[in-house]
Amino acid sequence: MMSSDNSTALLEHSVAGGGDDAAIGSWWWWWRFDAGEAKRQVQFSLPMILTNVFYYSIRLVSVMLAGHLGELELASATLANTWTAVTGFAIMIGLSGALETLCGQAFGAKLYRTLGIHLQASCIISFIFSIFISILWYFTEPVLILLHQDADISRTAALYTKALIPGIFAYGFLLNILRFLQTQTIILPLVIFSAIPFSIHVGVAYCLVYKTSLGFEGASLSISVSLWVSVLLMAPYLAFSKRCEHSWEGFSRESFQYIAVNLKLALPSAAMQCLENWAFETLVLLAGLMNDAETTTSLTAMCVTTETIAFMITYGLGAVASIRISNELGAGNTHQAKKAIAVSLKLSVILAITFVLALSFGHNLWASLFSESRTIIDNFASLTPFLAISITIDSIAGVLSGVARGCGRQHLVVYVNMTSFYLVGMPVAILLGFKFELDAKGLWIGLICGLFCQALALLIMTLRGRLTKLDLFRDGDDENTSAISA
Predict the structure, then answer these.
(1) CA pair distance 402, 409, nearest whole angstrom
(2) Transmembrane ranges (predicted)?
(3) Under a CB-based contact definition with an 8 Å cutoff, are residues 99 and 403 in contact?
(4) Which residues of 35-55 are buried (b: 16+ CB within 10 A; e: fewer)?
């Protein structure tokens, strides 16, 4: 829960943070580039980005293998991948985001035992949500038909989805362990424990799809197998590693008492993640309602995929920002937390420029990986400037979202995302796409409007908000974290 008096203004002209005696006389620190902090964040973010890429590739490889079985299988696997992403995997990613705040600040405050308690509470929450998600996935076929999807594709997509049910339980546990270790700056083992399952997955998926009677269903079943392999690799490390001996003291019934504290951040964290993901998928659905639906859907899906890959890298930097800020706030180092925010924003701009340059010079090559159609490639080239703008804004917004998670402001981001995407972005997309017949360009301009509003609101919230240290204990506990001096 938030402590009302344990906060400090982010842009006050004179602040003393824990351990920083000198007052900050002006905003000079915001514009100065801290090379040491930047190096720390880059070294931290690269392994996290690799970890994200490996886990994303596990699902991507299965879709690609299933797609080679035929057109129906490709359409079904793609639909199932989208369906499971927005109704399951995105929720798990969001729920685990609570640990970035709770474990991050607990580690900074040297309340090591609390990290293990919060991990267990988060795993209990993920397990409960996985049960409800499993029920929804079991009835995938009638739900997709209700959403006016093709009957044959829906039936085949349901087979793919049902084989993923064991995997959603593993994914929830996996993400919680990842956040638990990341907040303690334990990074390199995560790369190893994601690279090994990915390497195994390629062989297992190929064998299940092409060498057994499972065929199409083997593609998604292999995802479940690989995710559980990753969990089983991490569990012994968590239990026996010297680096976790103080933060993991075994299972405790006390974790049930921390579920309410965890839910206060987990639910809004899941909501903020899902609201943004659903906005992108909505664009693909809207594209399917246009006159030239095939071309527009292909272009929109290509843009969404490109944006997703870019965001996957940005999310690594955003996670670093979240962890660095939560660690410093937990330790009472307000000044260092501010420096971490400033450096993260500057790195996000550098990252965005890199994406834009790569896309500007290589858009034709990138588009040719999706389609050999000259029409698709030329139309994608005309969308490249808009895609460059959206990637730039999304890179900054992704880091600002990480800052919000580190400060425990997930509930505010929910309102920001709801307003930005569904009161601004989607209405503008529908107006330009359908009324003014701009098709894919209109849809993407609408998304840009939503992203701009999101980034602007998050930036204002970051600059004018107050850095807050959380009470890391359950309600009514006598033990509380120390205040951040203002």
Answers:
(1) 10
(2) 49-70, 82-103, 115-139, 159-178, 185-206, 218-240, 340-360, 380-400, 412-436, 442-463
(3) no
(4) eebbebbeebbbbbbbbbbbb
Q: Supply 330's token pair.
A: 């937990």
**pLDDT for 15-26, tens place per residue?**
334 444 333 334
Q: Residues 121, 83, 291, 309: what is their CA dihedral angle, to the nearest 10 degrees?
A: 70
3 C-beta neighbours (distance < 10 Å), count = 15
Write b or e for each residue in 12-25: b if 16 or more Cβ atoms lie within 10 A of its Cβ, otherwise e: eeebbbbebeeebe
Give pTM, 2 decimals: 0.84
Q: Are 67 and 77 in contact (CB under 8 A)?
A: yes
Token reading at 471: 């009470």
Length of the chain: 486
Interhelix angle 188-210/165-182, rounded to 10 degrees, is 170
Report which residue type is found at 481.
Answer: T
Instruction: Report the candidate in 258, 238, 260 with the shortest Cα–Cα distance to residue 249.
Output: 238
Residue 8 above 70 pLDDT? no
H or E stretch covering 195:
helix 188-210
370: amino acid identity, one letter: F
Query: Alpha-carbon distance 328 to 343, whole Å?
Result: 14
State whether the Cα torsion 473-410-326-457 is positive or negative: negative
Q: What ranges make up the beta strands (E) of 76-115?
A: none
C-alpha span between 451 and 475 (Å, rounded): 36
- Check pLDDT > 90 for residue 266: yes
| Other Cβ atoms closer than 10 A to 479 | 10
Taking the alpha carbons at both ends of the chain, their separation in whole angstroms is 19
Nearest to 402 by CA among 272, 248, 220: 272
Give the gyration radius of the chain's Cα atoms: 22
Neighbours of 148 (CB within 10 A): 10
The per-residue pLDDT for range 126-163, each reduced to its tens digit, is 999 999 999 999 999 999 888 877 888 889 999 999 99
Q: Residue 267: which H helix or E strand, with range?
A: helix 259-287
Residue reference for tokens 């095939």: 294
Q: Is the dihedral of CA 134, 138, 143, 148 positive or negative?
A: positive
For residue 375, count other CB atoms closer than 10 A to its CB: 12
Instruction: Give the whole-angstrom CA distance, residue 444 versus residue 459.
Output: 22
Helix crossing, 374-407 with 439-464: angle to 10°?
20
Are 115 and 103 a contacting pair, CB within 8 Å?
yes
**Helices (DSSP H) in 288-409: which residue ranges?**
293-331, 334-368, 374-407
Rounded Cα gap, residues 320 and 104, in angstroms: 11
SS3 13: coil
Residue 420 gets which letter from DSSP?
I
Q: What is the CA 4 to chain-centroid distance, rounded? A: 29
